[in-house]
Amino acid sequence: MRVPIQKSAIPDSRVFVIKDLQDAYFDPNWHFHPEYQLFVVLKGHGTRFVGDTIKPFKEGDLLLSGPNLPHLWRCHESYFAKDSQLSTRGIVIYFDENFLGHQMLEKEELAGLKYLFEKAKRGLEYYGHTRSQVKEWMLKMVNSEGIESVIQFLKILSALAHSKEYRYVSSGPASFQLKASDGDRMNLVHHYVIDNFRQKITLEEAASLANLSPVAFSRYFKTRANKTFSSFVSEVRVGQACHMLVDGELSVAAVGFECGYKTLSNFNRQFREITGMAPLEYRKEYRKVI
């Protein structure tokens, strides 16, 4: 099924669109759209793919992403089990850069907002007091209407623009023109890797799914993901390992095997390269904050 590029199109009659998303899991498709997106996770956990990064996500995460920055919030595999009783909730706000009107960002009073939008093209993840405050305001916005909702939205943008409690998500903005067909191909590849991370994954199989030769696929994938296919596979596997290390009781060796690694040494090496710490260090560090 084709992924629509204008997934979150904002009606001309609206300043922005806010949605309270409540479902069994978040949209499992890799996608992109020309609007800015502010998203807070209220319930759920899994792996997020934003731009060229792959990292675990959890309740409370708050991200602002810019136009056409590809993203996917893939819930943990337990959410897709037939007998799953799990559910997710998140609030998302879509808005256009010119929601205040054309040329408004050139005004002196809105210089901070203009700079915020420029930074958001790489994606911004907020933490600390900013995250807590904005989450509270977004919850209030769900039930706000008319000019009150617009005032609340401007309040949120002001807080984000003035905050220093953020980190960049992607290494850069989307640097190429995406097409709807990219969504089709990349979704097939994402699903193939995520569904088979425990098993052998081959470049040839991925290329076949994308209807390209292995050489053409390697070039195509690196252009759109800003990394090689093998690096992507490693990051997916390590991302799954992160969940297992924090949520489960398996030994480090068992986690590595479950994530498709044949040797403990290779698992330890790739895990450290991607996360900056050893698997056991990661388990100890992140269990402190769960």
TrEMBL record:
InterPro entries in the cross-refs: AraC-bd, Homeodomain-like_sf, HTH_AraC, HTH_AraC-typ_CS, RmlC-like_jellyroll, RmlC_Cupin_sf
UniProtKB keywords: DNA-binding, Transcription, Transcription regulation
Pfam families: AraC_binding (PF02311), HTH_18 (PF12833)
HTH araC/xylS-type domain ranges (all copies): 187-285
Protein name: AraC family transcriptional regulator
Organism annotation: Imperialibacter roseus
